[in-house]
User: Fold these one by one.
Assistant:
Number 1:
Amino acid sequence: MTSRRSVVKRPSISASDNVILMSFEFEPKGFDLHYGLEFDQITAEVVLGHVELRPEILQPYGLVHGGVFASISESLASVGTAVGVFPAGNIAVGQSNYTSFLRPITEGTIHGKATRLSAGRTTWLWDVEITDDQGRLCAATRMTIAVRPRQAR
């Protein structure tokens, strides 16, 4: 299996974005790489990504497995939070993932858009919309990300 890897380098920012430019690159790693997540845009306010549909991410009835939708949501929200909290010496980890499945996806591309709702000192809250190629809402997630101090290795 060959995979296309996307790398989002240094998100574009402006003073009004309230985003801190990161000195490292974001690219799918670990499980995200396994199911095929590609980042399209990363800021501390909005994160966009997509996954090309393939047989490995389908459940037995030919629909995208719900865990893929939940995984996309958690990754988009975690990376967006990381952009905002890493410069202050913190990390971002998933705390709560509530995903509702609304419509199946059986072909094409899964599109995800995470929009930050709140950026607190210890938690960030995101809404994530998962859509199909026709722009139809297929899943909706409310994602809470915990902000914790980065530990020295």
Note: The beta strands are 38-42, 46-52, 90-101, 109-119, 123-131, 137-149.
Number 2:
Amino acid sequence: MVPAILFYDVVVSVHVMAIVAAFGTWFAYPLVVPRGDASAHRAQVRLSRAVVNPAGTLALIAGIYLASDRHYWDESWVGVPLVILIVLMGITGAYFIPRQKRLAELADAGAGPEYVALAGQVRTVALVAAALVLVAIFFMVAKP
């Protein structure tokens, strides 16, 4: 007997893969980005533009389909992660990309006190963003 795979199940898989692609690297940044490395900051900008933005958009489109197909729009486990996704996409473009560019410039100039202060601020926001990813995952899995 051939197992039936519904289109909905394929979209769920695409949705999960897109979230992993978009936000999975955020958990590794503190470990793999050495302080004062301009090229690493430029790589983060490229990664945000080439992976985070497209994968986040794909996750949003897939999520809209999933919630619409099953009429889940009234569920908190849809609404809370949706707001979190929109916030994360917004801070990627409005916060992380410009600050990573600035960090690269400051690193090229010797990574002085302004670099240290901005790097600390970015690290704090990145930790909050990663925590938001975990909150969204909890809502999607536990469905409170």
Note: The chain has five helices and no strands.
Number 3:
Amino acid sequence: MGSALVLVALLLGAPGIAAATATQQELEESLTCQCGCGLTVHSCNHLQCQSGEPMKKEIADRLAAGEDKEKILAAFRGRYGEKILSAPTFHGFNWFAWLTPFAMLLLGALGVTRVLHRWTHETPAPVPPVATPADSALRSRLERELADLDREP
């Protein structure tokens, strides 16, 4: 029973330990290669890439020196600007880049819901007006005149 609790504690604590120390691959995936391929530094498929290979070496050197992920990313961001990051940060105007797709999805869903509601819930037909005594008199006059027209040669 005691070993099971220790095992559960280790499993629950493992993500925190893994998050504290960034790996080379995580950092390479966090940075966009500057050679123009549009891929991350880790995924760049150019042989002997003039941008990706030096970045990989610098990341390895900085990790060996004991720098953490945030400090390494801040150094690259300082040198290349925000464009180096493979995903925008959630600071400043970049929050808009994160929220816009979800907002558009929500607006689209609301629009579709509204259209479907209109299609499935038909408006009731207008109620015909109730005949008044004057209408009855006019109707009988109309019938008389139509009958007279039918009798004329």
Note: DSSP finds six helices and no strands in the chain.
Number 4:
Amino acid sequence: MIFAGVFRSGTSVTNNQEHGILVVEDDPAIRRLVSMVLQRQGYRIDSAADGLEAVRKLGLGEYDVIVLDLMMPNLDGFTFLNTFAEQEPDRLRKVIVTSAASPAVIRERMKGTPFSLLPKPFDIGELVERVRSCIEAQIA
């Protein structure tokens, strides 16, 4: 199982630094921006340039949230999410998907998977709020 045990359990933590976020984005500028903004919010950030790198990092660390682009080389976000849905379906609530693809197309391809969708271009403040909500939902 690629994703077994890669997320934290829903323990209550008040310090953002104790929350890990994996940013998976092939565009270096977007990856740096998202990482920098979330780091300034106090989160512990790790990043990956594609799905394969993300899988490797998931094997080495625990993350409270994954911010995932869909259109990437090597292992795209759709394949990543499909594998994830098969192996850790309850954990999809910890995934925030960013994509320039049509939301209707994404929902159609990913029927029944409960991830959060944030279409590109997105408001960085909205992303920060989605990350915060995702973490708070795990604590509740």
Note: The CA atoms of residues 82 and 110 lie 8 Å apart.
